[in-house]
Amino acid sequence: MTTNLPQNQRVVSGMRPTGKLHLGHYHGVLKNWVDMQLNYECFFFVADWHALTTHYEDPSDTPKHVEDMVIDWLAAGISPSSATIFLQSQVPEHAELHLLLSMITPLSWLERVPTYKDQQEKLREKDLATYGFLGYPLLQSADILLYKADMVPVGEDQVAHIELTREVARRFNHIYGREPDFEERAEGAIKKIGKKNGKLYRSLRKRYQEQGDDEALEVAHALLESQQNISLGDRERLLGYLEGMGKIILPEPEAKLTKASKMPGLDGQKMSKSYGNTITLREPPDELEKKIRTMPTDPARVRLTDPGNPENCPVYELHKVYSDDERLMWVNEGCRNASFGCLDCKKPLIDAIQAELDPIRERAREFENNRDAVRAIITEGSEAARDVARETLDDVVEAMRFA
Ligand code: TRP
Ligand code: SF4
Fold it and tell me: Among 78, 170, 227, 336, which is most buried by a count of CB atoms within 10 Å?
């Protein structure tokens, strides 16, 4: 991978349109995206074609889910002035690259992706013995490679998909990255970086190729990165020449693991729509209050005077997310000494979540009342994404000498 300046590094990530998001999404993914958009060139998209791989029988809810999800992104602080927000199906290049990549992807690579069998088992009620479902991770590879992403923020469950993406990129570069006169051109490019740098490049290349010295490879990447006066094509040639292959058309992305969201739900299990234990980002204040007030607590606390143990209580799990050490002590003492009741314990938690959600709800309301603006953000983002995607596809088709 190229060692770019952070602001030049590209980040790509997507979410399937599941409709309104909840606090688990916020703490697990969105806050991370909001941070990244300030430091990297970010592309965040709604993977509506991916939704179709499992919901092909009734896709009619998808457009509504798409809009609702983008409203939540915007409400959480993703900004169209900092990140490109778009819809996969509005960038048909995703389908085009997926098709081209499918030609060189061994069937066994897809069958071996763990999510393939896992999801089929899990979603037993659906017939997922389809071509589209098998191709799910390859469509994801196309999503990523289309933008030549350096980094893909994902959860642990997606790492195998990023690994597949790297393998597919490597295979593509191997098959199509070889220009007939590659060596000659690479040698020509070395001359363009000057005598001293050229000599350094050659010695680093030798150290890497003959001794597998990764540090030499890294230094060589930095050297090439600092060359201002060579063309992008020459830079790519020299990068490819370092590792002994051809030109790198599709760079290999890296997974950037978002730490597993420990966001507990209302029942203490992980917060998830399928467990029905969520607080949505747009939960009305009174609903939110009701949900916390009715949360189960340590069953030992039947009467106010019965002491309890926070370790047996889902409310305490939420306190761990929202309360500082001082308040956690307060909970522990009050619970174990039965000096207050569970509603007293829940009160500061309710306040903390309300305070977190207040600005989010307000921004969401603005966008709910202006759905045209939301649609415009999606359309403009998709057009911008398309320009970048088209460039990659032009490179791809040219490398294949198919056009
Ligand atoms: N498969 C991802 C998920 O279920 C969603 C996704 C689709 C994605 N395309 C992507 C994530 C590209 C990152 C990059 O969460
Ligand atoms: Fe849970 Fe707090 Fe009640 Fe203890 S006092 S059982 S931590 S809600």
Answer: 78
